[in-house]
Amino acid sequence: MAAVQGGLIDTEEEKDIKTEPANDGCGNNNNNNTANDGRLLNASPGSISSGGSNKPATGALEDQQTLLAVLQFLKKNNLSESVEILRREAGLSEDTEDSKGLDSSGAGSGGAAGNVDSESGDANSLLSRVSVSSSAVSASAVQAPSKAGAGEDQPDVNVVLSAYSQQGDPALYDVYYSSLKKFIESVLDCHRAELSQVFYPLFVHMYLELVYNNHENEAKAFFEKFSGDQECYYEDDLRVLSGMTKKEHMRGNETLLDFRTSKFVLRISRDSYQLLKRHLQERQNNQIWNIIQEHLYIDIFDGMPRSKSQIDAMSGSLAGEAKREANKAKVFYGLLKEPEIEVPLDDEDEEAENEEGKPKKKKPKKDSMGSKSKKQDPNAPSQNRIPLPELKDSDKLDKIMYMKEATKRIRLGPDTLPSICFYSFLNAYQGLTAVDVTDDSSLIAGGFADSTVRVWSVTPKKLRKVKSAADLSLIDKESDDVLERIMDEKTASESKILYGHSGPVYGISFSPDRNYLLSSSEDGTVRLWSLQTFTCLVGYKGHNYPVWDTQFSPYGYYFVSGGHDRVARLWATDHYQPLRMFSGHLADITCTRFHPNSNYVATGSSDRTIRLWDVLNGNCVRIFTGHKGPIHALAFSPNGKFLASGATDGRVLLWDIGHGLMIGELKGHTDTIYSLKFSRDGEILASGSMDNTVRLWDAMKAFDDLETDDFTAATGHIHLPENSQELLLGTYMSKSTPVVHLHFTRRNLLLAAGAYNP
Amino acid sequence: MADREERRFAEVPRESVKLMAESAGVELGDDVAALLAEDVCYRLREATQSSSQFMRHAKRRKLTVEDFNRALRWSNVEAICGYGAQDALPFRSVKEGELFFIEDRDINLVELALATNIPKGCAETMVRVNVSYLDGKGNLEPQGTVPSAVQSLSDDLLKYYQQITRAILGEDPHLMKVALLDLQSNSKIAALLPYFVYVISGVKSVSHDLEQLNRLLHMVKSLVQNPYLYLGSYVRSLVSSVMYCILEPLAASINPLNDHWTLRDYAALLLSHIFWTHGDLVSGLYHQILLSLQKVLSDPVRPLCSHYGAVVGLHALGWKAVERVLYPHLPAYWANLQAVLDDYSVSNAQVKADGHKVYGAILVAVERLLKMKALSLSQSAEGGFSSQPGSVVGALGYGVSSPGLSPPPEPLSEAALGIASHLQAGGAGCPWEEWTPVPLPAMYCELYSFFGDSLAVRFSTGPGFGSYPPCTPPQPNDARKDPPGPAANPDTTRKMPQLTANLNISPRQDGSPRTEPPPPSLAATGPGRSLARSSSSSSSVQRSRSSSSRSGQRSAGPSRDVFPKARFTTPQTGPPAFSFLIGGRQMGRRCQGRRPFQTIFAPTPPLSAVLPRTYAHKLPVIGRVGKPVRRWACSHYSLHLPL
């Protein structure tokens, strides 16, 4: 149940988002997130803490807690007589108050905050509410005696109390954290790694609470003392945190919002969890327990605790690991059936079928005999799950060309590596930001930081525009070569420049039929260009923030875009508004890719997760965590089963889409990976990076080694073999040219592209 | 804030905030300023963090002003203008006020607008493809297209380039001369340098054409001499082209009629010139050159002409190089050379002729070695400038491990040209012997055991000679020429004639080049004690072209006369007393004639006496001959002997 939140809501909320144009990116997301969180809260924490202590007590205990808190307040204000009176009346003994008072009051406040959270659907209101309540601290402090005495307004009092208790013990944070640390360090090895996961989220939330309560110096001291203990892959977030020492700064800080509004997900085995819980209860360490309840989602599983390496492999994202439920949905990762097209020279090559083909719902003529040879892949979605455009005649011709080429394709392998051609962009002083190559490798396009898009023909065939309307009316439309006649020979040139954007062009994509080009830019628009007239046809406005990436569906017509507003949008070229919005990422969407069967979209994000979205219903069907940096490259394997991702951490991770598992890690690059591509048959994975190298990996081997026993599949616990070196087939250096794009031609020649960077 | 030890971020001190507020006309209290400063820091960090994602998406490593401004814009803050320039901003400080500021010069807009030097736009963005990795073979060197001057090459330059290359490689010698002269002095051809270097690297493809090789070498020379060119790392490429001409068994050398020897000599001369003038551009160049020369020398499979090239090259690099490489290698090499020379079979004739060439080259090199060493010693003894040569040369000398093996005689292209050795036996040095420290005599002894009497060390006139060494370093040419004095003409009466006579088909007109070892009228058999003797060698000159010359003739005394003549002109004035014998008459003439092409052995005015040494060894005198004299008339000197 938990998995689906984002997507479900998106589709419903599409309207809202659109109607709220400015400045809404974050807000909307947060809406969604908190809504989800709210739901989760109702369900999961309940189940988790069902064995816990604080629930059963509720009624009586809370009353007592309130009393104790009021007592403390009175004490603090030197109202000793009132204290005496109250104590007498409530029948509390001195020592219970001292020993239990603080803790229980903390617990109470935690619970209260949780309630607030779950009841309110709005994230922004969370902050505002808390801040309001904090101001209420002073206000209510005056009337505290009377109000507390009444004690009927539970939430308010609790908020007051929480602020109160926190005011009292900023120094105790240190103690709490240290004692937990000591405890975790002393537990059995097998539990230690699992429990250590708690450190980071706890640390962050404690720090934020300190900052929030204006304990600037304590916060700094706390940070100094414990930031060194955190895993190194949280370094970036820690840096952001360390810069934030004032309450005022918390408002509007995105990282902070992420922490406040989304639960950090941990996977912990039942045994370890019990250990932790017992410890916290024994020690009355309610401060920490509250944070765990309030801000952490602990995904408990039965079985062996995971090892440190297993945990490290999966953690690293902004919000912890993905919940197991999030990856349970069925994904139809198989390929669509290819249309039957009569190939003039019929070489049956099985290679052609590996590649994505054009789907054809009903193919009237031609032979329908071939269909039996390729029976429907059980994992494939039904042909018309997503309506796809009909094949045009030119598409069929292209398909035939493709098959012909495919017969000449070189079968790659560890012993037969591809030749590599490097397309260098020279004199690209304006900054090359994106590159794409058509499937038939006849055109190459570059997006530049100076807002231009440039298209080159890499074949001797020059680029020509269609004649103007006046000239077109003159030509003989009946002639056989009318397609040739409509072209204006005078405009023939090797390259064309497309002007229109008003900011750097970050994403670029050719349509499969080579008639269109998409570009996404910092100016918040996605533009569709005609490669017949070399003019802009449509500007798709929807993202109000920079659009980092866009890509056409492998069948054309649809395209996806994602950007700074954390929402990926699915568009159709003939609609000016998006068809779907995929919301759920906690930070910028940095790259978007279509699944070969066009039924799914993968997005990579700065929150260091990858999500797979179902185009049909907008649901998020997979969340992959494990990268330690923003993800900048994604690639589906040609058979649709696997996904490769590359990030700023220089690692390539391989994912099994069907099982929702990480199945491989390829280490070797020393800088951000900006491009990934599988060879046409999927044997080789090529990765291109900012470190000026292209590396080739043995994808077949990486996938073969995969052990997908039921246990692994069920628990999601993976053992990654350390075999990067064996899988690395070659490293190819360029001369100060970061590799921005990779492309395998239909015959498996590898094309790489980048700008020479003197 | 201030007490925080480790600073993670740039921090703006409150004083700065106050100052800025003041400049805006606002008075701030301390606490306000502190708060503001802290907030400013935080906002800065925030903006920097969000700007970094613009950098990442632009696929850059460098954060630009533009990135920062974008981040500001997206957070609804006004962008900061005026810092987008590429060049670094000068950061200045004023001492008195402890002020630091960025210099902000006024720009005269009128001047700017009316300026005539309109900057050209940068070249057009383009895509170029290169096949980098065939069949997935890995590479060690980074590959890729480097847009060097290609795109900025103007039409004028292109035209110039075409004209020049056409002229140099074309038929018209006059045009070539003009072209070379221009190449030598034109100050605007820096952009073309890579192209010329590339053209020159074409030596490998024209190794069959001596003429073309020569022209390319001249091109090298012109480039090297052009004072406006910074050769940079292209030196390496030039050197390798030149080395190719020195060391490779050129296709042209298959035909014995081709005078590839001269080419090698010239290339060696050029090499030393490049090295002396541009050697500092590439570190380790000297060492590399020595190593490759040594490698060739110690490679028995190489043909003799390659060995010859190696010896000549070493010689050209100075006596230190000879001492380091050739000398230790000599014993091993000697045996093989001797084997070649001792083989009298007809089939071996050509090889043997080549062997003589090598022999002669070695002899010259060794003799200069002895002389220079002696000189440096003597000068160092005298003090004064004497230290110069030694130190300069010494600085260059690297230790070179002694080379290995003997070169077996390898059959190779026959020596086309006659061999003329204008080696003379100088009054070997009694005088200098006295000054020599131990190694020198030892060296001499060892060398003497090889060369016997043909080893002669001749000193040119004291002063003249003395002046040479100091100027060697700057002017390699001179270094080259200075072996003049010491030419040892080993000649063995018995072998020489036959050898050379048979071989030579030189078309020289002048009489028999062959100088017989003159009756050793070595007056100056010197005072030397340890030196076995002053050996006078007849300058045996084989004229390759002089087919007419008979062996008999050569052996005849008269031919020698010239030689001593020349030498006599410069009697040694130095402290050591030498007396010279006239070796041969013709020698002098020949030497002059030879001078243009046989640069190494270019006879300087002073010539040593020739002392025919008796034939302690079997080694024949080896003569060397260049091309016919006529061809190398003085008019051509400017081209061919620029150095």
TrEMBL record, chain B:
Signal peptide: none
Domain TATA box binding protein associated factor (TAF) histone-like fold: 10-73
Record-stated family: Belongs to the TAF6 family.
Ranges where the record places region Disordered: 467-579
Reported function: Functions as a component of the PCAF complex. The PCAF complex is capable of efficiently acetylating histones in a nucleosomal context. The PCAF complex could be considered as the human version of the yeast SAGA complex. With TAF5L, acts as an epigenetic regulator essential for somatic reprogramming. Regulates target genes through H3K9ac deposition and MYC recruitment which trigger MYC regulatory network to orchestrate gene expression programs to control embryonic stem cell state. Functions with MYC to activate target gene expression through RNA polymerase II pause release.
Gene it is expressed from: TAF6L
Principal subcellular localisation of the protein: nucleus
Complex and partners: The PCAF complex is composed of a number of TBP-associated factors (TAFS), such as TAF5, TAF5L, TAF6, TAF6L, TAF9, TAF10 and TAF12, PCAF, and also PCAF-associated factors (PAFs), such as TADA2L/ADA2, TADA3L/ADA3 and SPT3. Component of the STAGA transcription coactivator-HAT complex, at least composed of SUPT3H, GCN5L2, TAF5L, TAF6L, SUPT7L, TADA3L, TAD1L, TAF10, TAF12, TRRAP and TAF9.
Protein name: TAF6-like RNA polymerase II p300/CBP-associated factor-associated factor 65 kDa subunit 6L
A single MF term (Gene Ontology): transcription coactivator activity
Annotated Low complexity bias: 526-560
SUPFAM superfamilies listed in its UniProt record: ARM repeat (SSF48371), Histone-fold (SSF47113)
Taxonomic lineage from the root: Eukaryota, Metazoa, Chordata, Craniata, Vertebrata
